[in-house]
Predict the structure.
Amino acid sequence: MKVATVTDGPWARFGMRRAGRLVLSVWVLVTAAFLMIHVLPGDPVRAALGPTAPLSLIEQRREALGFNDPLWLQYLNYLRKLLTGDMGVSMTSGLPVQEVISARLGSTIQMALLAFALAVVVSVPLGLLMAVLARDSRRRGGDWALTSAGVVVATIPEFLMAVGLVFVFSVQLGWFPVAGRSGPDSYVLPVLALAIGPAFMLARIVRVELLAVLQTDYIRTARAKRLRAGAIYLRHALPNALTATLTLGGLLLGSLVAGTVLIENIFAWPGLGGTIVQSILAKDYPTVQGVVLVYGIGVLLINLVVDVALAVLDPRSAIRES
Amino acid sequence: MKATAARRWTGALRSPLGITAAVLLAAVVLLAVVAPLIWSGRADAVQSAEILQGPSSAHPVGTDLLGRDILARVLVATRLSVGLALLATAIGVTAGLLLGTANVLLGRWIGRWVGTLINIAVAFPSLLLALFFAVIFGVGAKGAVLAIGFATAPGFARLTQTMAATVSGRDFIAAARVAGIGRMRILVRHVLPNIAEPLIVSATMAAGSALLAFASLSFLGLGVQAPSYDWGRLLGEGLAQIYVHPAGALAAGVAVVLAAMAFNLSGEAVARAIGLRSAQTGRRTEHTYEPPPADPEPDGPDQPLLAVENLHVTFPAAGGPVTPVRGVSLSVRRGEAIGIVGESGSGKSLTALAIAQLIEHPGRVRAERLEFLGTDLREKADHRRLLGTSLSMVFQDPMTSLNPTQRVGRQLAEVVREHQGADRRTAWRRAVDRLAAVRIPSAERRAKQLPHEFSGGMRQRAMIGMGVMANPQLIIADEPTTALDVTVQRQVLQLIANIRAAERVGLLFISHDVTVVGQVCERVLVMYAGRIVEDLPTDALLHDARHPYTRALVAAVPDMTTDRNAPLAVIPGRPPDPHDLPAGCPYAPRCLLATDRCRREDPALTTYAIGRRVACWHADQAPAAIPDNRTTVPDDDKTDDPIAAPLGGERP
Ligand code: SF4
């Protein structure tokens, strides 16, 4: 936790290891994105232009995109361009891919972060409540009801949750708009649809972890100090339960990113999720490539943040690993 | 082996969860088979007169844009939706198995690289992977099957890898390798059968996820293409009409959730049935307890700090409650040190926890008397303050008994902040002072560290420092030196002795080690099977113990010529299972003096001399009757006494 320890052996080793893993992952991702187009059966240019396109046009486009170069040269060019921030040109709109992405990335990030924040804010107290109820012999029923409800809710995928929410709150009650991004009320349903499942899932993790932590020797020590129940739960148990919660929460944030793809398509949200589906359908491969890269790097960064946060919260885990 | 496995799998059917899962799954499979045969006509019949109608008797959930019956379409779509999901799962499971066993199949080196790739791939959510593969394999049902299959593979590969690694480490695999059996054969004959059950469970759950993933892709327009339709497609079509006609989207949505749940619950039910294996061992007999006649405490002039009479601790268990502590009576006076010795499972630690009021639900504590500083702890009043300031606990394992995420100083300071209302600064100063008092060098700096930065001995001393933050009258130390090496152990014992002498506190010292107890305590209580079987002064321990068990414990202590680090000699046999106590003396199965009477009647703890109690029918037999191969005893050698030895003094 102290700054001075960051330069110590284990920390340096942890940093090196983690950085190495990130670089390797990014390289695999970039290579996969590059190969994605080249292992496609058939000619992507012909596919994009349609079966009726004249041969001369196809040849011209192939040349312009560098498809006639040897594979290794294409790969090097691709890497070189990526490093300068050039992701190619959209086959459908003719706009640079990086512009298409930067115009839409913000609203996706916004939605994902809002949903994640909501999930965390709801799940910690909910999990705590479930654990407290589970520990209290007279109120086991409450824990049972919450846990079962959580299991059911967490199995409903976000896009079905979205359909349900739209049906109840837009169609039946007319409280929120059904699609698009306009005022603050247009955020409610998409964010809820994304957050409800993860919130219950996280709450379950918080509950299980808390119950496990409450069995440990140091909680017995805290009880031997005769602290108030509140102090035992909040000061001693919760911080220790959160490290594991954070690990799984990170995974959840990753899948929440994936969930945005569906939610954006349901709510006609102007984000990357709409872009990727449209460009897959339109066979606009440069755009697909770019968006896949952005999603992938987003996920890798989330994992990195989670690992670092974990190491700061629980230095032993970082040291044990290296 | 086969039969028990089958029993376990059918056992999954007997729980409510299992029944629900089985019924759902059967319904899904049945519909997938018969629905297209029965309702295809209805589902495809275009009726332009009945476009987008609400529920009616002819169309229970209404009609779609072309006037087709929605219910029929949802039912017919079962076959395609489930079939494609199962196909994708099969691909994913096969690919995952191959990747996950790459190090068995292809050797360690390639296996490592595959492992690295798997680790990178599992970091990505499977829907993103599915989208990625959907680009490669193209839009449409075939592309989506492959995409979802390959997106499932990394997770499955990781699971296989982890489990195969644990199996591969086992002896029989090594033996098979040495015997020159081929890799493929090892895999198929030895590795896979051992991990089959968990793999089948996760494959079942993976089928549920594949179903949802397929619905997502079709919903996005990347999966099944018109004129074919699956649930995802119906959902997408329904969503477009949700304002006019919500039933379309909802019916498809409900179908997807129910089918996915059928697979998930089945997996869950089987997993539980498999996991329950260990819980269904043997029958349990309930031991009826007869309270021993209350034995009068040897009376002393002053009021004891702690007085316990006929203490019982009971826990509920599968075959009826068990009582690991059965009628313990003891007292501790001011400045007195009492030791409790016994093997693990004798109930000594539970006795300590019960006295300290730390037995948690569902455990129950009963006693005829449980008084601390004149307060009856059995009363429902709030004893937090009394116990928090006057009674302190020092626990066994210093590695786990301190909170790993809190600075040591703060954990100490907490005690006085909580009970004496000290402000942050005062409490911190007291904590640093206590750390210094337990000889932690540069206490100021150390107080700011986390427990893992302390050595084991320092942690235990910090723990003791925590015990003397307030002004304890009684310290209960539960195996405080067990996890420490001999030198540190000596220092810690010295520290406890010093505190006791300086503050005149009472000490209840619990240990499995007679030698240690002999060094610290004036009086020793020997526990066996939840009861005190002998109560004697420490001086008598060596040559005048009456209970055969006490003598065996003393005899098991290595003498000066044996290596202190060698494993302790043990008493043959095991302590009785508290679930199933024998009739008569619980020590009889291991006792060299046991007679028929011992096996019939349980001896009560009786006083036979001043300050001496024993529970044995043959306590009057001369100690010589017990075979004893020992000559020297460490306690005889006074220089080995850690209390007499100077702290940190050089010892061999
Ligand atoms: S009562 Fe009998 S069996 Fe029990 S310890 Fe004494 S001699 Fe041994």
Observations:
- Chain A touches chain B through 68 residues (CB under 8 Å).
- Chain A is about 80% helix and 0% strand.
- The pocket of iron/sulfur cluster is lined by residues B 547-548, 585, 587-588, 591, 593-594, 598, 603, 616-618 (CB under 6 Å).
